[in-house]
Amino acid sequence: MKKIFVLLFVALLFGNALSVQAKNKKSLEQMDNAAQKAIKRCYFKSGIKKLTVLIDTLSKIRPEGDSLLASKYMQRFDCYWVLKSYGYQDDYSCDLYKVRDWWEKYHYQNDSVYSAILLRLSYLKLYKSDKDSALIYLNKARSVYENLHKKDFAYFEILYGYADIEKAKGNLRAERDTLENWIDKYHEIYHRFSLLGSGPQHEIFQVRPLAWHRLRDCCEAIVKEEMARPHTEADVPAPREFESSDSAHAAVDEVIDCCVYYLTHHVNSPKMDDAALFIDNWLEKSVDIEKLYPLQSLQLKGNPTSKYAFKAFEASLILRQLMIRSYIIRWRNFRDAVKDGISFYMQNRNVTGKNDFLEPLATAYGDADKKKQRKIMRFWWKAVKHMRPKFHFI
User: Fold this and answer.
1) What are phi and psi of 63, to 5 degrees?
2) Are 55 and 95 in contact (CB under 8 A)?
3) With left for phi above 0 and alpha for psi between -120 and 50, is residue 353 left, alpha or beta?
4) pLDDT (tens digit, 9 = 90+) per residue, 332-353?
5) Which of 259, 265, 231 is nearest to 317 (CA)?
6) pLDDT (tens digit, 9 = 90+) per residue, 156-211?
7) Of 95, 206, 264, 390, which residue is least crowded by CB atoms under 10 Å?
8) What's the count of helices (H) and strands (E) in the chain, helices before strands?
């Protein structure tokens, strides 16, 4: 009888333990669901509070280095990372260092989680202006992820980090090169998935337009930087003939100097004719840009009072194409080149004389009316669309 009582007592205790464990599990699931729901709705402050309660509870029942507990620390850091831009006072950077230490101590250092930790550390160091450490962490994250032979959104996110580092360094050209490399790899992965009959993760498609816009802004900043750099007569090389596309390609830096000189000087400056002739000779052989030909058929080119404005438009378009290193004329480049051409005419019409063809456009150029702005674009589009059979914009 005594043995039966003991067995019943043990069974009762075991049943109560299971009941408590089930209740605790249900409570943890409820806390986690509440935190995830708040984060999904972008209530990050609420998400941090709920995650903090969950972390405190998990810390009492989970061992140090537990992967579930580490994931919640990481998630709390991510919420803080979003909020810091909005003046959030609390700092949860220590969460990331704790997870890093745990992963190096208890887990593999060659998995995607460790790579994600290193990527976050890179951004954290960059935020604190430690660019050298940021680059070290980013290189390590890339090395770990490439060893996994995976090409997904996380890999593209790592590559994108290099552009942020170059931006922090103030190196516009290196930032441009990094963004172009990102886009090239995007196309490589996109075509590979297309051949397999599937597609990359949808996040890549969301980031790609942002990369294009950022590349565009970066190239515009490079153009402004180049235009702001003083160019003198010494920067304009003597006009010469080019024998091949290779020799023209070797003279890209020289034609950029000619374009900038032409756009930043008056028509009566000493080297304007040399710069224009150098550009014309270079255009005949170059394959680095989308060409506009035959130039002789354009009304602006043959008009004595407007040919200078057209040359400014042409120089601006060449400059912008070379800065983005693409032979395709993009609509934004075309639009900005139009503005440069009209602006050049306005600044020099006291020397070249007024042109009946351009004067109404110059008047509209200074007007904020969008309809007049569109009128300018339509005129220039009509002026150039017959210059080659397959002239196109993207």
Assistant:
1) -75, 165
2) no
3) left
4) 777 788 788 888 888 888 888 8
5) 259
6) 788 888 989 998 988 888 888 888 888 777 766 655 554 444 444 445 555 566 77
7) 390
8) 17, 0
